[in-house]
Amino acid sequence: MNAGDQVRSLELVQLIASVAALFRRHFPDARANLRPWRDDPHTRAFEDQQTLDLSFHLPGWSPRSQCRSFLLQLSLAAGVSEARPRLLGVTIRGLTYESERWRLTTLGDWRPAGSHLPVESVTLKLKQFCGELFDLFEAGAGAADVA
After folding, report:
1. What is the pLDDT at residue 43?
2. Four-CA torsion 41, 102, 135, 128, nearest 10 degrees
3. In the predicted model, what is the mean pLDDT of the chain?
4. From CA 95, how far away is CA 125, in angstroms rounded?
5. Is the dihedral of CA 112, 128, 118, 26 positive or negative?
6. Model-level pTM greater than 0.85?
């Protein structure tokens, strides 16, 4: 689901903003889009209440990333109904106007798979970003448990 449509608490707003800031720390030229999905009946038929989806658009096609946009999907344990959901997994897709070029998921060995893979330095940044996402969600969950 579009991250921008899931904002129901101040804590969730801060979490989404932190995710975007964290991604931009690794890819400073990327512009965040909190509503990557169209709002039409066909798209709504496939919406997943257990994910937060946002995308990041580069200024043009990136030969190092082998894409023009990154689609980030965060899989959550209890969906977005909780103020601070628990992160189960991350999927990042490298996209062009034509199609998905590659996909990296935090299941298995965290390696991208697809027809046109990003260079190793970009893959390392994406893996580091995913690890930092888990840290971000865990830090927030620990703070909520103490309160």
Report:
1. 44
2. -150
3. 82
4. 17
5. positive
6. no
For residue 138, is pLDDT > 60? yes
Residue 29 pLDDT = 95
Please answer whether residues 86 and 77 qualify as being in contact, where contact means their C-beta atoms are separated by less than 8 angstroms.
Answer: yes
DSSP state of 66: T
What is the β-pairing status of strands 113-114 and 51-62? unpaired
User: In this structure, what DSSP letter does residue 119 have?
Assistant: P
**Contacts of residue 57, Cβ cutoff 8 Å, sequence gap at least 6:** 30, 31, 33, 68, 69
Q: Specify whether the CB–CB gap between 77 and 85 falls below 8 A.
A: yes
Q: CA dist 103 to 4, 11, 62, 86, Å?
A: 23, 29, 16, 22
Q: How far apart are CA 13 and CA 3, in angstroms?
A: 9
Q: Report how far residue 103's alpha carbon sits from residue 95's, in angstroms, rounded to the nearest whole number.
A: 9
Please, are residues 56 and 23 in contact by the beta-carbon 8 Å criterion?
yes
Average pLDDT for 55-74: 93
